[in-house]
Amino acid sequence: MRSNVPGSVLLAASMLFCEPALAAETVPAPAQKAAGRAAEAKEQAGDEQYRTTVVGTPEKEADPVGEYGQPAWSTRRRFPTTRVYVLPKGGVNLDYWLVTEGGISGDSQPKYTSKLEFEFGLGARLQTDFFLRFEQDGYAGPMKLAAEELELRWALADWGKLPGNPALHFEYIRKHEGPPVLESKLLFGDMLSDRWFWGANLVFERELGGKAENEYALTAGLSRVVCENFFLAGIEVKAAAADEAGERFEFEEISLLAGPSFQLRPTRVLYVDFVPLAGVRVADNETTGHYAVYLVLGLELAE
């Protein structure tokens, strides 16, 4: 599937725009001032009370924010296929999703999924999300409300206290046509450096009725800061398999998708994710080309 603006052109333009930052990864003057303010505040408040929270707007994606001491990038949905950690207490995000997926063959029509997501940081390392999901089959099919989704996740410890910063994720999906679904995930994510970070999820999904289908998935993402608080680029991978009750691990469908991942931050509170994935899907003993394109528009309503 082709894009009007190829990923390579977008990456090259952003690297040109951010050339000074890439040529010498030094801390800019505003960041030095912010660090000075942070050091003064830390000295006044005391190490334990201050924790690792940065004073004011973070200058870098790696700057710690919130009472859990997590990096700023983890509060903005960087990987559409992979969740990482939780929102800080009081954090509120609004996300709009548009997912287009289908077969690569010429006669295949796509399936469109739109989601409206509200994210809330509850404190005590808890987060809850609420989704409205709309679906459309084919170019001319009607767009209809297909499901409501309620998510709860909990981080096991403050950021940096456990390897991989694990978090538990549970989601209940109430479908309008078909049985409900319960999804559980184990979330991981961490920094490799101030500019490199990653996320990975282990996923198990169970249909509560009907064929009682099970889905197993592994998702992962790797990202690099190309230009601080403006442009990030990386890759994402998703592998999934499904079976039915009574036929455990006799998979009726297997898929593997991979592709580039981009995030643009045109303003301090707005972020845009674009992730075109392509790969293969095996079903009914037939292997076909498959794609899934994710576009996410996010808005930080509170920090």
Folded structure, characterized:
This protein is mainly beta. It has one domain: Porin (Beta Barrel), CATH 2.40.160. Helices cover 12% and strands 51% of the residues. A twelve-stranded antiparallel barrel has the order 3-4-5-6-7-8-9-10-11-12-13-14. The protein has a two-stranded antiparallel sheet with strand order 1-2. The longest helix has 17 residues. The two termini are 36 Å apart.
- The helicity comes to 10-25%
Q: Spell the H/E element sequence.
A: HHHHEEEEEEEEEEEEEE
Note the main sheet: 12 strands, antiparallel, barrel
Task: Determine the CATH topology.
Answer: Porin
Task: Tell me the fraction of residues in β-strands, as a range.
Answer: over 45%
Distance between the termini: 36 Å
Identify the CATH homologous superfamily.
Answer: monomeric porin ompg
Number of domains: 1
The main sheet orders its strands as 3-4-5-6-7-8-9-10-11-12-13-14
Given helix and strand content, the structural type is mainly beta
The CATH class is identified as Mainly Beta
Q: What's the overall average pLDDT, rounded?
A: 85
Name the features.
12-stranded antiparallel beta barrel; 303 residues; two-stranded antiparallel sheet; single chain; mainly beta; 51% strand
Summarize the topology.
Blueprint: H1 7-17, H2 19-23, H3 29-45, H4 47-50, E1 64-65, E2 70-71, E3 92-103, E4 111-123, E5 126-137, E6 144-155, E7 167-175, E8 181-191, E9 196-207, E10 214-227, E11 231-243, E12 253-264, E13 270-283, E14 286-302
Antiparallel strand pairs: 1-2, 3-4, 3-14, 4-5, 5-6, 6-7, 7-8, 8-9, 9-10, 10-11, 11-12, 12-13, 13-14
